[in-house]
């Protein structure tokens, strides 16, 4: 497993990220994550649709809350041909509670808590914290990554405008 150092900080302290960084043009790795009802969700479940995948450390933090709410609102504008996922290592029960409290209905919150396989495959698994690095991916209907952003400081927001511009371009 590749370990990347010097690419991510938390309050200016360096952290180690597991997995290779994905880039536009790469095939999106498959995943098997838990939904809030404990059912398994895979990338293949949304084949043929454009996907916005938003990785966050924990929905119970202000920055992650803002990120998830923003992408919930924005993906709703694209209709059924765009699927939005927010992936964290939070337990599915915590994700369900958060969704209910936040009124989230458009995006699906998915948990990587079992084995961090998504984090390893997408290069967002923070070794020291066993959380996901903040990142955003736009995957086209053929499963190819068209946009990838890895936020270098854990407490910073992603570049919403760049991610949404990529989503608009890919989703048509």
Structure characterization notes:
The chain has 172 residues and is an alpha+beta fold. It has a single domain, classed as 3-Layer(aba) Sandwich (Glutaredoxin), CATH 3.40.30.10. The chain has four helices and eleven strands; from the N terminus they run βββββαβαβαββββα. The protein has helices at 62-76, 92-102, 117-122, 160-171; strands at residues 3-10, 13-18, 32-34, 40-42, 50-55, 82-88, 108-111, 125-126, 131-132, 135-139, 145-150. A five-stranded mixed beta sheet has the order 7-6-5-10-11. The chain is globular, with a radius of gyration of 14 Å. The model has no long low-confidence stretch (mean pLDDT 95).
Distance between the termini: 36 Å
Can you identify the CATH superfamily? Glutaredoxin
Spans of at least 5 consecutive residues whose pLDDT stays below 50 are none
**Per CATH, which architecture?**
3-Layer(aba) Sandwich
Specify the number of helices: 4
On the 0 to 100 scale, the average pLDDT is 95
In the sheet with the most strands, the strands line up as 7-6-5-10-11
What name does CATH use for the topology?
Glutaredoxin
How much beta, percentage-wise? 25-35%
> Which outline best applies?
globular
Class from helix and strand fractions: alpha+beta
**Rg calculated over all Cα atoms:** 14 Å
Number of β-strand runs: 11
Q: Specify the helix fraction band.
A: 25-40%
């Amino acid at each position: 497993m590749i370990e990347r150092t010097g690419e991510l900080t938390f309050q200016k302290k360096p952290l180690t990220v597991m997995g290779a960084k994905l880039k536009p043009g790469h095939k999106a790795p498959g995943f098997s994550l838990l939904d809030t009802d404990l059912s398994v969700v895979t990338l293949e479940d949304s084949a043929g649709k454009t996907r916005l995948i938003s990785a966050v450390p924990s929905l119970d933090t202000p920055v992650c809350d803002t990120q998830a709410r923003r992408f919930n609102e924005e993906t709703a504008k694209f209709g059924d041909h765009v699927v939005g996922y927010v992936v964290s290592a939070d337990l599915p029960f915590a994700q369900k509670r958060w969704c209910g409290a936040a009124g989230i209905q458009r995006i699906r919150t998915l948990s990587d808590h079992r084995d961090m396989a998504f984090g390893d495959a997408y290069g967002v698994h923070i070794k020291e914290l066993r959380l996901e690095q903040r990142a955003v991916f736009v995957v086209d209907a053929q499963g190819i990554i068209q946009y990838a952003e890895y936020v270098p400081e854990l407490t910073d927001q992603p570049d919403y405008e760049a991610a949404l511009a990529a989503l608009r371009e890919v989703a048509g």
